[in-house]
Design a protein that fits this description.
The chain is an alpha/beta fold and 181 residues long. The chain is 26% helix and 17% strand. Strands 1-4-7-10-13 form a 5-stranded parallel sheet. Strands 3-6-9-12-14 form a 5-stranded parallel sheet. The protein has a 4-stranded parallel sheet with strand order 2-5-8-11, with no helix packed on it. The longest helix has 17 residues, at 27-43. Keywords: Acyltransferase, Amino-acid biosynthesis, Cysteine biosynthesis, Repeat, Transferase.
């Protein structure tokens, strides 16, 4: 637990001085600790209870982590709202994840029951806001997945992925509005 707290303090620039105590209010930390308990129960083959705990943590934090997911050390989930981690996902050490990240499957028509259906994320990967990684793909170590990226194939170690950025629509400026009429 101390290692998790240290990871949050190191990677969140909002935590400094007396504000460090706010780390205990971070939903990502609560979701991570709840997952660790649920994962132990899942591995011990307790029925129903691990999934119930994960759903309670989802209700409290807005972060859904399936009890079967394997999460490494020092995961940092910043803000956390809308994060979803699927059952067979594997997350390495020192991964940083922002809100609305999905590590999901491709759907019941493509994913066989009992197969690995979710991504494997290497050590020190950063997953930007809204990044979606679907299927049994592998994200290599130290890769950076940019905001709003959709990843459906393997990403090599150290790669930087980015989604197209928004651009200004021509004739959208107020001074041009009168010219259109």
């Amino acid at each position: 637990m101390l290692e998790d707290i240290r990871a949050y303090c190191r990677r969140d620039p909002a935590l400094y001085g007396v504000r460090v105590a706010e780390v205990f209010l971070y939903p990502g930390l609560w979701a991570l600790w709840g997952h660790r308990v649920a994962h132990l129960l899942h591995r011990a083959r307790f029925p129903f209870l691990p999934r119930l705990l994960s759903q309670v943590m989802r209700f409290v934090t807005g972060i859904e982590i399936h009890p079967g997911a394997v999460i490494g050390r020092r995961l940092f989930i910043d803000h956390g709202a809308g994060v979803v981690v699927g059952e067979t996902a594997r997350i390495g050490d020192d991964v940083t994840m922002y809100h609305q990240v999905t590590l999901g499957g491709r759907g019941w028509r493509r994913d066989a029951k009992g197969s690995r259906r979710h991504p494997e994320v290497g050590d020190r990967v950063t997953l930007g806001v809204g990044a979606t990684v679907l299927g049994p793909v592998r994200i290599g170590e130290d890769a950076e997945i940019g905001a709003m990226s959709l990843v459906v194939s393997d990403v090599p170690a150290g790669a930087r992925m980015r989604a197209p950025a928004a651009e200004i629509v021509p004739d959208s400026f107020p001074q041009n509005a009168g010219a259109r009429k």
